[in-house]
Design a protein that fits this description.
374 residues; alpha/beta; five-stranded parallel sheet; 16 helices; globular
């Protein structure tokens, strides 16, 4: 039945993930799905399944910037791996979005749930409800993924206590598993079922000391893991990401704001000020600020006792850039720096006083704009 809904389709790897065909063989293909429009299906049951699965395909983010080395690792696992994929790395580096966008571009429905200290098994496997006087079991994301033969992602897996995570042992071993809360049901995973975990740690240690609620995993799980580290992107990748994020703002608006803000940027030809600064020079400056902050942060690997407890993740960098421009009239109307105002709203407002000072100093160092933080 499902073969009429989950129709396999070969996608060219390079063009699907916007990779350079000079670096990635354009003849390499990866298998995804082509789910038919539910309106074209006559059978009501199949129509319902098609609508459900089509809605479970993540939405494509046109501004997402794929990284060749990460696509290479995920492609290998997707094509050959039988183990659990672990995507680990610092907050906001793009672990979840990497796999979501992988599925989005391949038309693959994705089920998901989140780990936490008080995690309950029904959050993954399902629960019983009373409907019209009858007890009905509603399957959870793990159960649905296994039944349909599709991937499931557990975000922040390293927040689940080992005593509670033991419920996943049979699942991760690839064996049929009893459904917790509905033990009379045994699920035999359909081919294509895959489990993906994201975590800030590698499930063994937390060198940064920044993830105090993370826990180590049992050794038996580690033997089933295919681990891929997702760090912050390189400069070129983040510059490309910001170019896409800011593409909707015209040059006239940027020039107006550069003048009002009075930004100063150091270039190979000397210091440029205001509207003399180009879009690309401004974007490079934003990425430079992010990397200055990361170098001082625990997430960025600093072992200094005074290392910042917050950092500029790729997610925050994108928000900061976009909302800085959306506050373009702040210097003229309120006498407030848009750079610092947006930074307060999306990062430093949720940091300690010492970290807040360091975050805004990084902005001042690169763009020459100071701000009263009181």
């Amino acid at each position: 039945m499902l073969e009429n809904i989950l129709v396999p389709r070969a996608y060219p790897l390079a063009s699907t993930f916007n990779l350079d065909p000079n670096e990635v063989d354009p003849t390499i293909e990866v298998i995804g799905y082509d789910i038919p429009d539910p309106g074209t299906i006559d059978d009501p049951e199949l129509q319902s399944h098609a609508a459900f699965l089509k809605a479970a395909v993540p939405e494509v983010d046109p501004g997402y910037q794929f990284r060749r080395e990460l696509i290479r690792d995920v492609f290998y696992w997707w094509d050959f791996g039988e183990d659990v994929l672990l995507l680990y790395g610092p907050t906001g580096a793009g672990k979840t979005s990497l796999f979501e966008q992988w599925c989005a571009r391949l038309g693959v429905p994705l089920f998901s749930f989140r780990g936490h200290r008080d995690f309950k098994e029904h959050e993954a496997f399902g629960h019983k409800d009373l409907v019209d006087g009858n007890t009905v079991f509603t399957p959870g994301p793990m159960t649905l993924a296994a039944q349909y033969g599709l991937p499931v992602i557990c975000n922040e897996y390293d927040r689940i206590q080992p005593g509670k995570a033991i419920v996943f042992n049979d699942v991760f071993e690839g064996r049929p598993f009893p459904v917790p809360g509905n033990h009379s049901q045994i699920v035999v995973p359909t081919p294509g079922f895959r489990a993906v975990l994201t975590a800030n740690t590698n499930l063994v240690e937390d060198p940064s000391g920044n993830y105090q609620t993370a826990v180590a995993a049992d050794t038996s799980l580690l033997e089933r893991i295919y681990a891929v580290k997702v760090g912050y992107p390189d400069v070129e990748t983040e510059v490309g990401m910001l170019k896409k994020a800011l593409a909707g703002f015209d040059d006239a608006l940027l020039a107006y704001w550069f003048d009002q803000e009075g930004i100063k940027v150091g270039t190979a030809s000397g210091i440029k000020t205001g509207s003399a600064v180009s879009r690309d020079e401004f974007i490079s400056g934003m990425v430079e600020v992010a990397n200055k902050i990361r170098a001082q942060s625990k997430d960025g690997g600093s072992a200094d006792d005074a290392a910042l407890e917050r950092t500029m993740s790729t997610r925050i960098l994108r928000k900061w850039a976009v909302h800085t421009i959306r506050h373009a009239k702040s210097p003229e109307k309120y006498g407030k720096s848009a750079l610092h105002l947006a930074l307060k709203k999306y990062l430093s407002g949720l940091a300690t006083e010492s970290t807040t000072i360091a975050l805004h100093q990084a902005v001042e160092t690169v763009f020459g704009i100071s701000e009263d933080l009181k």
